[in-house]
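Hey, can you fold this one?
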Amino acid sequence: MRPGYVLHRGKPVDYPLGNYVLRYYVGSDVHYESIGNDASKVLAKLEQKELSLKAACAATEAGATLMPETSRMKLRGQLDRFILATQDRGSNVAADAYRLAVDDFLTLTAKGYADLLTADDMRAYLRVLRGRGLSARTLYNRYSNVKAFLRFCELDPKKLAPAAPKYEQGLPEVYTGAEIAAFFASLTEDYHKLLFNVLLQCGLREMEAVYLCWPDINYSTRTLLVCSKIDLGFAVKDKEEREVPLSDELLAMFKAWKAAHPNTRLVFGTRNDKPNTHLLRTLKRLVKAAGMNCEACNGCREHEECEVWYLHKFRSTFCTKLLRNGEDMRTVQALMGHSDIATTMRYLRPHSTGAIHDRVTAINWAAD
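Sure. Predicted structure:
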């Protein structure tokens, strides 16, 4: 077979466009099946169809019935649909996490069809992940992502994913005052000063910062609006818009940055005004340049990228600061965009032992 040619009266004729069609018979009925335009794959599909028809004939002679190919759910095809549906909701980060977990699951199970899956496949998948040294929380996240895929396929998660891996839910990590002071003192560019002040003082999620646009900044009400950008493919988590108050310091920084970049739409976009999806990489680079790597974590030892510093930690610090400074729980829940107050309550963590040492020392433990 020669790509880009067809046989016409026994001679190859240039024909760059078009699709190959497979013709076969079922009894006396002729069937046609389009098999694409990739000549290198056509012969493999021809061989696959021949084997499929021979198997059907053998089953008929033996008095058995094969399940029709079209009635079986192909897992890889469902994965593509699952990812597309997630992206259509504007959840690109979730889509990446789903693809990582489910693609790994399907590769390890080597099951092409949904009807072949069993609970043993999930157990085997988790055993492999444990063997890789992944944390208990990571195991749970991967399990949850695969379970969401099974639910999308309208399969029974209780049957195929019966037991979730357990993990200890730790308190959200926050930056100390010393870390914040040292980090901001190391920043020299206005872009970085504005970006990380917004993350710290507004508690934005990473993608909320990536898709922050100038119309979201309201100077008269001194607020920042967190909202979806449908044309950019971004949707707010839980589909809830929210307003966050801006300090006078942040308002001044926004005005100065806008004056220097009057023709942009995105506040933290690239030079071409495109979404900058490398904010985490920027943080890691700045921390390393400032000499603030912890030098003890795996990230520092293997990649010189400190695991202690990550974007969501600014959001955790924002929430904890509000609660420690007396802001009521319902208000903090609204500012964080949490769907339930239990999530907000996790950030009501105690002060560090150093901060309460003097109070503990002043207690008369022998008094009534």
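The beta strands are 5-8, 11-14, 21-26, 29-34, 217-218, 223-226, 242-245. Let me know if you want another pass with a different chain boundary.
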